[in-house]
Amino acid sequence: MNVDAAFFDETTETDVGMVLRDDEGIFLAARSLVFSGYLEVVIGEAMGFMEVLSWAKRLGLENVIVEGDSKVVVDAILSSASSESSFGDFISVSKSLLASCRNAYVFFVKRSDIL
Fold first, then answer.
1. What is the pLDDT of residue 82?
2. What is the rounded CA–CA span in Å between residue 9 and residue 1?
């Protein structure tokens, strides 16, 4: 699964795009969410990871690899540290969702490597 957030100053919207592929890279499904209101980039990216992991859980996927281009978010999800903030809340939920899958991994992938 790939996830990315896009931010639009003129509309103060944050869009989150998600793509589901099989183990051979074949496209299976896509999903897009729009959040209104101004969000910090790191918050929007954290929401994206939480949403893609939630989607994986709703689909009943047990073997999941999630790739995204936010190193800050990936590092936070993989860290044992916690944070008392909105960012920390999204990370905490993402960690719980990740743990609920039998085989789930999160990786940072440079933007140019995702395409």
1. 86
2. 27
Average pLDDT over residues 72-96: 94
Quote the CA–CA distance of 32 and 12 in Å, as a whole number.
16
Strands 27-36 and 13-21: antiparallel
**What's the one-letter identity of residue 24?**
E
74 and 29 Cβ atoms separated by less than 8 Å: no
By DSSP bridging, strand 2-8 and strand 63-68 are parallel
Residue 9's pLDDT is 77
Other beta carbons within 10 Å of 55: 20
Q: Would you mind telling me the total number of residues written for the chain in this entry?
A: 115
Residue 20: what are its φ and ψ, rounded to 5°? Answer: -110, 130
Phi, psi of 45 (to 5 degrees): -65, -40
Q: What angle do CA 22, 27, 31 make, to 5 degrees?
A: 105
Residues 6+ apart with CB under 8 A from 9: none
**Nearest Cα residue to 7 out of 31, 42, 51:** 42
